[in-house]
Amino acid sequence: MAALGRFSRRALATALASKHHLSTEVAKAITPSRDRVNWDYRGQRKIIPLGQWNPKVAVDAYVAPNVVLAGQVTVYDGASVWPGCVLRGDLNKITVGFCSNVQERCVVHAAWSSPTGLPAESLIERYVTIGAYSLLRSCTIEPECIIGQHSILMEGSLVETHSILEAGSVVPPGRRIPSGELWAGNPARFVRTLTHEETLEIPKLAVAINDLSKEHFSEFLPYSTVYLEVEKFKQSLGISI
Amino acid sequence: MGTLGRAFYSVGFWIRETGQALDRLGSRLQGNYYFQEQLSRHRTLMNVFDKAPVVDKEAFVAPNASVIGDVQVGRGSSIWYGCVLRGDANSVNIGCGTNIQDNSLVHVAKSNLSGKVLPTIIGDNVTVGHSAVLHGCTVEDEAFIGMGATLLDGVYVEKHAMVAAGALVRQNTKIPYGEVWGGNPARFLRKLTENEMAFFAQSALNYTKLAQAHAAEHAKPLDATEFEKVVRKKFARRDEEYDSVLGDVRETQAELPLPKAS
């Protein structure tokens, strides 16, 4: 009985293997790239150390599993990095400050050197909200700012405290956005100064998003339970666990 | 000692069994909102029926990039994190030494308003900045597409031309040699100097080297990465900068020579 079971399993395995052979025969006719992994079930790692640099995430920071942190990236307490972001600190440092949030699909990169001559790291200080789909390259964002969605901040930009960048604004390299002002446009131009009430709202927005990120954070178990699915896979394919 | 080892092993096994049973209990309690984790089914290189990507061995393709359909990537090129190169409707051809930076999208049109069907051809040593969107356009060698740029159907970017960041280049625009176009809609901004044009080739080369560093890191098997994690933990010291942000400023000690973990 057991032998029969083993036979059938082995037959199934060889049948699957031969079918795999068949598909690779067809694939060879179209010449796919050799030595190239087509499908890696491990997926993309979230934290990618490069050499001796290791991205550091604070314990209560929410970093979505979709995010790629590579190189010198530090995400401080209460910060959140939402799905689809890429924080690539391979040439220079990237810091996401306390209670800041980098929303969906942003790309934060740091160039090797900045046109202003200052250190070219990307520094996002505390209570900063960076709207979705923004691109930040070697810029410094001082505490309590709001960067609108789909904005592009180029090398060496400096956004001073309590300022707001409207959605879709493009800040040219080396541009300084003065404190307490609202800028918009491509290239970014001055619109008006902010009232005191609006300035008070800025950290409140960051704190609100921080609360939201806590809800998202609580959805994830400390360790993934993917091994259960792997075991099911192996069982169905007849590989011994 | 054999028996002590066996005892620890079986106790550990009981604890894990209990843990798994507790996991099942917790899942039952969660009821309708129970979430079961899945293996990542993301396929970096994906073929659409008979159109398969042909990616050179020396090219770096980030694992969460998607290279789908009829895409050819040349030697030394790099496709960075989160990119989507979709060659399902037509073909995408990327030359050597080109880099398509993070979160970009390269797509082709099967049919567009003017009726012409255009494959996307990106030449050698092109730098395509972060989050760019290239749709059915041709980019010649050593051009520079700034980050966030959107290039629509039929755009022809000539050699050594530059598309500024955030530009929206409308359909069938031709960007001549050595010029910078930008804005929404894109218009001529200025001409490039010789230094800047030489910089494009240099930047592509820099990116190729950077891609090799990333590729080396991704090629590591699980044992190597886990081992490095352990080594890092062992030789880690309290980060003065992190503590200083939290308000605890210390005198920095002399730099400890860390052993090379990689």
Automatic annotation (TrEMBL), chain A:
Per the record, the domain of life is Eukaryota
Topology class, membrane = Peripheral membrane protein
Q: Name the family the entry cites.
A: Belongs to the gamma-class carbonic anhydrase family.
Quote a single Gene Ontology cellular component term.
mitochondrial membrane
The record's InterPro entries line, in alphabetical order, gives: LbH_gamma_CA-like, Transf_Hexapept/Carb_Anhydrase, Trimer_LpxA-like_sf
Q: Where in the cell is it found?
A: Mitochondrion membrane
Q: Which organism is it from?
A: Acacia crassicarpa
* CDD domains with a match to the protein in the record: LbH_gamma_CA_like (cd04645)
Protein name in the entry: Gamma carbonic anhydrase-like 2, mitochondrial
Automatic annotation (TrEMBL), chain B:
- Output the Gene3D superfamilies linked to this UniProt entry: Hexapeptide repeat proteins
| The protein's name in its UniProt record | Uncharacterized protein
Q: How does the record classify its membrane topology?
A: Peripheral membrane protein
| GO cellular component annotations of the record | mitochondrial membrane; respiratory chain complex I
Family membership, please give it. Belongs to the gamma-class carbonic anhydrase family.
InterPro entries assigned to the protein according to its UniProt record, in alphabetical order? Hexapep, LbH_gamma_CA-like, Transf_Hexapept/Carb_Anhydrase, Trimer_LpxA-like_sf
Q: Which GO terms describe its biological process?
A: photorespiration
A Pfam family matched by this chain, by name? Hexapep_2
- Where is the protein localized? Mitochondrion membrane
